[in-house]
Amino acid sequence: MIAMLAASQGLSPDDPSFWMPLAFMALLFVVIAAGMVLDGFDLGVGILLQIAPEHERGRMMSLLSPWRDANEFWLLLGMGLFAAAFPFAWGAVLGKLYGPLTFMVLGVVLRSVAFEFRIRARTELKPRWIFAFWAGSIITAFGQGMLLGRIATGYQSDAGYGWFAMFVGLCAVAAYVLLGASWLVMRVDGDLQRRAANWARHAIRWTAVGMVAIAVTLGLANAGIFYKWSNIAHLSLAASVWVLMLAGFVAAEMLLARLPGRADRFSWLPFVLTVALFLLMLSGLAYSLFPYLILDDMTLWDGAGALGSMRLVMAGAVVGIPVVLVFNILAYRSVFGKERRPVPLLPPPSY
Amino acid sequence: MDISTLSLARAQFVASLSFLAIFLAVSLALAWVLLFFKIRARWSRHGGWTAAYRFWVRIFALAFVLTLAASVPVLIQIGSLWAGLMDKIGNVAGPLLGYGILSVFILKSCFLGVMLFGQRRVSDAAHTLAVLMVAVGQLVAVFWVLALQSWMQTPDGALLVDGRYQVYDWVKVVLNPSIGWRMAVVMVGAALAASFLIMGVTALQALRRPLGEGERSAFKTALVVAVVGAFLQLPVATGAGQMMAQLQPAKAAAAAGFWESGPVPQLVLFGWPDARAHTNVADLTLNNAGGMWLHRNPDGTYQGLDKYSGMLPPVALTFWSLRVAAGLGLLMLVVACVTFLWTFRRGMDPSSLPTWWQRVLCGMMFSGGIAVVAGWWVSIIGLQPFVVNGTVTQSEVLGSMPASTVLYGLAGYVLLYALLLAAFAGMLFHAARYGVVPVRKLIGGAP
Question: How many CB atoms lie within 10 A of CB A247?
Fold first, then answer.
């Protein structure tokens, strides 16, 4: 398959100008997937802040605290890798997405500042920064959804497509709520867990609607993708992906309905299922587009920089990947499992 | 209303870059100041240095958070506003941007957490090392960014082939003709921004109450940095100015307000460059003194703005940005020297200054920051209409979005930046008044 791909580009498989872009693409996919899932639960918990009871909000933010530094870097890392490895696609892709990107960036800046400033703000101002973090999270999630909507419809920006992008934006908010809420279900006990399970059940329907809408639109709006999926060999693959997704949604819904309670032992499962659904969707999208960065217009080899520049980037990546890996393994090793709260020395006051 | 997409895009990019520049300058210089505090605290036994470190590390943390956040809009705007830019300079800019981000990642993930939250968990030596590495890491990251920025001013080591730059010598790209002076300008600017901030805040505290040991130590350090930095401005400004005259004659002529090419020109101190009449209105000039700052043709005449009809930078804005930067620079030099002469016999103690001079220092608190912004304006507005000097114009790389969308974007950014500036100032003044309480943040997988 690799050989076939190389032949289609008129290059030999061991030619660096063939395999380097491919390697960068794989890296970029990993970074995007990690960012979507790991920054995603962060985003989801942020969106839930204003509907959570007031006394739980501070706790929810400190729950995020251990991973915040790692979470917020995925976007920059992805941007850096994209710009460095595919400079010629960078402007071509981003230039078509000015509106949604501006939306997303405003949200990202607001939430990353709000999180750090809240820690250092005086007590009476903390609620304001929590509000800012919430607003930033919603704006970011909505902007990312709009991005996805634009990409799925082949970057068309007529009015109808605009409404579709907004619709996907709303579904993205729901999807991140699902991710954040199911993470909370896994992470905490008691009242907050009960609420989180409830939030997740509300969000799961809209997530499903959004994912189906993206998949259908992707096929209908882009003839190339429709063709790719509709031949016999791919139909069974498509069918199995659909069955998997359906099973994932049903299982998550059934578990959430039994939490807290009978399914306590499996409180981690909704989160894992949601992550799997996210990854499935992203892989589907990536597979649909591959090997194009802009469908039927620019392949990853067209987007990649000159060989000399790629070699430099590769040198940077060889230094960078181990650091990124070690740091992230250290940072995320306890992201699963229950919150461990400090043991109180005195009996808690009775209210 | 009829504003072109191009001018809105320029305004948006300049606004984002200015916001980044302020906090980058403050955090870059504060990191080194903190390293000094930390080392003094380690080797001298008196408690002032630890107190100074503790207070200013808070301000550093706020500035660093803002710097990191502010770099995201700039990066995204390079792709989305100037959509065609990377298609032309991608071979050069891609690796440089990538290295910049990688440096920030390494500094942030490996060292910043230890510096800000790990003081109790690691040994003192390890903590000092973390502070050192944060300072070095920031400098390295800034170096990559400035390498790209100065390359766009004075491109070298790459050739424009079929509309795309192809690199033939990476050493020449990175060490392009203006990187040295650009680095120097940014470092001196950062030193002044941070030192005047420290002096201003300490003077504000001195106006309210007797100062502690830590505040006096911080003031002493800042004063020395301010004096040295203010004097270093002179050679650095001269060098950077002559570099500009040699390699960017249009920018130099705009900054000098020099309209007609000709023999020995006047030095225009003040005035209003009128772009329609091609002359300066109400100007104050020195005769025969301007030659040093202009490009000299082989025939001995000096190159004026008449050589660049249609390709002029906004003359008045370039002209005045330079005068604001230079004026503030001179003012800072005077203030730093006066303060030094006033206090050096009294151990550089700010409380020995008269009240009105303490007020002056408070007033100068943000002068270094404003000068840094003005300096960036000269650099990037004077480069217009180009993004890469002499080859790529802004209008040819501009994305295709409608003006109204860019206007909404600009409004959003301005609103956000105003909010964050106000928040930073609010937290700075609150900390100056009531001190700081150490914060704890669980990092890196701790329960």
Answer: 12
Would the CB atoms of B167 and A91 count as touching at under 8 Å? no
Tell me if A91 and B87 make a contact (CB, 8 A cut-off). yes
CA–CA distance, B141 with B136 (Å, rounded to integer): 9
Residue in the structure block whose two tokens are 């790529």: B392
Residue B17 has pLDDT above 90, yes or no: yes
ipTM of the complex: 0.91
**B chain contacts of residue A83, beta-carbon cutoff 8 Å:** 75, 78-79, 86, 93-94, 97-98
What is the number of residues in chain B? 447
Query: Which pTM does this prediction carry?
Result: 0.92
User: Smallest Cα–Cα separation from A83: which of A96, A93, A72?
Assistant: A93
Q: Where are the alpha helices (DSSP H) in B175-212?
A: 179-208
Tokens of B51: 């107190």
In degrees rounded to 5, what are phi and psi of residue A297? -130, -45
Per-residue pLDDT of A1-15, as tens digits, reads 778 888 888 888 888
In angstroms, the CA B332 to CA B349 distance is 19
3-state secondary structure string, B324-338? HHHHHHHHHHHHHHH
Strands B164-167 and B158-161: antiparallel
Question: What tokens appear for A262 in the block?
Answer: 């009978």
Question: Hey, what are B6's tokens?
Answer: 């191009």
Cis status of the peptide bond prior to A291, with omega within 30 of 0:
yes
Both tokens of residue A213? Answer: 């809408």
| Half-sphere exposure (Cβ direction) of A57: Cα atoms closer than 13 Å | 22
What is the length of chain A? 351
From chain B, the residues in CB contact with A147 under 8 A are: none
- How far apart CA A159 and CA A145 sit, in angstroms, is 17
Cross-chain Cβ contact A84/B106 below 8 Å? no
Question: Residues B2, B403: contact at Cβ < 8 Å?
Answer: no
- Please list every residue in chain B whose beta carbon sits closer than 8 Å to the beta carbon of residue A100: none
Summarize pLDDT for A81-125 with one digit per residue, the tens. 999 999 999 888 998 899 999 999 999 999 999 999 998 888 889
Closest by alpha carbon to A23, among A294, A317, A306? A317
